[in-house]
Amino acid sequence: MSADTLLYIDVPYEEHMRHCTPDSVLLKKKHWHEHINFYSPNFLRTVVERCDLQVVDENILAVAGGEKDITMLQIICKRK
Q: Does the pTM exceed 0.90?
Protein backbone atom coordinates (compact mmCIF):
# COMPACT_ATOMS: atom_id res chain seq x y z
CA MET A 1 0.00 0.00 0.00
CA SER A 2 1.59 3.29 -1.04
CA ALA A 3 1.59 6.30 1.27
CA ASP A 4 -1.16 8.06 -0.70
CA THR A 5 -3.47 5.03 -1.02
CA LEU A 6 -6.78 5.19 0.85
CA LEU A 7 -8.40 2.03 2.20
CA TYR A 8 -12.20 2.07 2.45
CA ILE A 9 -13.85 -0.30 4.94
CA ASP A 10 -17.62 -0.72 4.99
CA VAL A 11 -19.28 -3.15 7.44
CA PRO A 12 -22.84 -3.72 8.71
CA TYR A 13 -23.69 -1.94 11.94
CA GLU A 14 -26.95 -3.56 13.05
CA GLU A 15 -29.30 -2.02 15.58
CA HIS A 16 -28.71 -4.68 18.23
CA MET A 17 -24.97 -3.88 18.07
CA ARG A 18 -25.63 -0.16 18.57
CA HIS A 19 -28.08 -0.34 21.47
CA CYS A 20 -27.36 -3.47 23.49
CA THR A 21 -24.85 -4.39 26.10
CA PRO A 22 -22.39 -7.12 25.07
CA ASP A 23 -24.20 -9.63 27.30
CA SER A 24 -27.56 -9.13 25.61
CA VAL A 25 -26.45 -8.99 21.95
CA LEU A 26 -26.76 -12.72 21.29
CA LEU A 27 -30.13 -12.89 23.01
CA LYS A 28 -31.60 -10.26 20.67
CA LYS A 29 -30.11 -11.67 17.44
CA LYS A 30 -32.77 -13.95 15.98
CA HIS A 31 -31.04 -14.88 12.73
CA TRP A 32 -27.62 -14.71 11.13
CA HIS A 33 -27.56 -13.51 7.56
CA GLU A 34 -24.49 -13.33 5.32
CA HIS A 35 -22.50 -11.29 7.85
CA ILE A 36 -21.32 -13.17 10.91
CA ASN A 37 -18.90 -10.51 12.17
CA PHE A 38 -20.09 -7.25 13.65
CA TYR A 39 -17.92 -4.31 14.64
CA SER A 40 -18.28 -1.25 16.82
CA PRO A 41 -16.61 1.99 15.70
CA ASN A 42 -14.17 1.70 18.61
CA PHE A 43 -13.14 -1.85 17.72
CA LEU A 44 -12.73 -1.08 14.02
CA ARG A 45 -10.52 1.94 14.83
CA THR A 46 -8.41 -0.28 17.10
CA VAL A 47 -7.95 -2.91 14.37
CA VAL A 48 -6.99 -0.25 11.82
CA GLU A 49 -4.45 1.32 14.19
CA ARG A 50 -2.91 -2.07 15.01
CA CYS A 51 -2.32 -2.53 11.27
CA ASP A 52 -0.21 0.66 11.36
CA LEU A 53 -2.91 2.68 9.61
CA GLN A 54 -4.60 5.89 10.66
CA VAL A 55 -8.28 6.74 10.35
CA VAL A 56 -8.82 9.63 7.93
CA ASP A 57 -12.61 9.70 8.13
CA GLU A 58 -15.46 7.64 9.54
CA ASN A 59 -19.20 7.66 9.06
CA ILE A 60 -22.32 5.83 10.15
CA LEU A 61 -24.68 5.65 7.17
CA ALA A 62 -28.37 4.76 7.37
CA VAL A 63 -29.64 3.17 4.15
CA ALA A 64 -33.23 2.33 3.26
CA GLY A 65 -33.18 -1.44 2.80
CA GLY A 66 -36.70 -2.28 1.72
CA GLU A 67 -38.36 -4.16 4.57
CA LYS A 68 -35.72 -3.08 7.07
CA ASP A 69 -33.42 -0.08 7.24
CA ILE A 70 -29.73 -0.91 7.22
CA THR A 71 -26.94 0.96 8.98
CA MET A 72 -23.37 0.77 7.73
CA LEU A 73 -20.17 1.65 9.55
CA GLN A 74 -17.66 3.22 7.14
CA ILE A 75 -14.01 4.05 7.73
CA ILE A 76 -11.37 5.46 5.41
CA CYS A 77 -7.76 4.99 6.46
CA LYS A 78 -4.21 5.32 5.13
CA ARG A 79 -0.66 4.42 6.13
CA LYS A 80 0.80 6.36 9.04
A: no
